[in-house]
Amino acid sequence: MTGKDTARKPDPSLRLRIVFGDVVMLGPGKAELLERIQQTGSIAAAGRSMAMSYKRAWMLVETMNAAFCEPLVASSRGGAKGGGAYLTDTGLAVLAQYRAMEAAMADAGAAQIQALQALLRDIPTGK
User: Fold this and answer.
1) Which residue in 92, 62, 90, 56 sits closest to 75, CA to CA?
2) What span, in angstroms and rounded, lies between the C-alpha atoms of 9 and 37?
3) CA quadruple 93, 22, 69, 41: dihedral sign
4) In whole angstroms, what is the distance from residue 61 CA to residue 88 CA?
5) What are the CB-based long-range contacts (under 8 Å, 24+) for 58-61?
6) Among 75, 93, 91, residue whose Cα is nearest residue 83
7) Do residues 122 and 27 make contact, with C-beta atoms less than 8 angstroms apart?
8) pLDDT tens readout for residues 3-55
9) For position 59, which CATH number holds?
10) In this structure, is residue 94 part of a structural domain?
């Protein structure tokens, strides 16, 4: 084998962005935010876990909620028992459809990704 045959190529990744008109309805960041809201029960905590400001996380949620027929995220204000957030049934459905499209895209393009990866230059370990 030559050095080219043994060099480690970077693992490929695909990024799916769904755009209607000029508006990105859903992409990797928004999908991750939805998942983290589902995991944490909090828009603030989800944003923090992504190194995102509370304001930015809220803005993204508001954008998604306004774009779809029904809100994707429901929230309650803080108080004695604290606030919280959760994905609505529509939010769960949108996230599931997005992840299914990602998987279908990866499966459908696997051969082409492998062919492109084989054409990459050797990339030294590190950077």
Assistant:
1) 62
2) 34
3) positive
4) 12
5) 60/29, 60/30, 60/33, 61/33, 61/37, 61/85
6) 75
7) no
8) 444 556 667 778 899 888 887 689 999 999 999 999 999 999 999 999 999 99
9) 1.10.10.10
10) yes
pTM metric for this prediction: 0.80
Total residues found in the chain within this entry: 127
| Tokens, residue 121 | 């230059």
DSSP letters spanning 22-80: TEEEE-HHHHHHHHHHHHHS-HHHHHHHTT--HHHHHHHHHHHHHHSSS-SEEEE--ST
In a domain, 89, yes or no: yes
Q: Which residues pair with 86 in a beta bridge?
A: 74
H or E element that contains 92: helix 89-108
Q: Token pair of 63, please?
A: 């954008």
Domain hosting residue 44, numbered range: 17-118
Q: 10 lies in a domain?
A: no
Is residue 108 in a domain? yes
Whole-number percent of the chain with pLDDT over 70? 83
